[in-house]
Write a structure and sequence with these properties.
The protein contains 3 helices and 2 strands, in the order αααββ. By secondary structure, it is mainly α. Strands 1-2 form a two-stranded antiparallel sheet. A hairpin with a 5-residue loop joins strand 1 and strand 2. The protein is elongated and about 80 Å long. The protein starts with a helix and ends with a strand.
Length: about 100
């Protein structure tokens, strides 16, 4: 019985100390992640990658459109056109990363 009580007491102390250390480490990681996300070089790289993704997606859309041609029902084509222009409104929109959509 004494060993069991000692084990449970050790487990409780370890849990409390681990929880404190875990919270401190979590705060350190959160602060570091925020610093990286706010770094101008990282933001510029993310914006460049997003822009390139949009360019490649546009090329893919054009290529697929040429190959598929008139095989797509008109109702589907109308829906795609309406989705493409949904965020346009004449000015760039921003996504969750703060990058603009030209």
């Amino acid at each position: 019985m004494r060993y069991r009580l000692t084990f449970v007491a050790g487990l409780a102390v370890g849990y409390v100390l681990g929880a404190r250390a875990g919270q401190q480490r979590y705060e350190q990681l959160k602060k570091a992640a925020r610093g990286v996300a706010q770094n101008p070089a990282v933001r510029n790289t993310a914006e460049t990658a997003a822009h390139q993704g949009r360019v490649y997606a546009g090329k893919a859309l054009h290529t697929v459109g040429e190959k598929v041609g008139d095989h797509v029902p008109e109702s589907f084509a109308d829906r795609v056109r309406s989705l493409r222009g949904r965020n346009g409104h004449g000015r760039p929109a921003e996504d969750d990363w703060g990058t603009s959509h030209p």
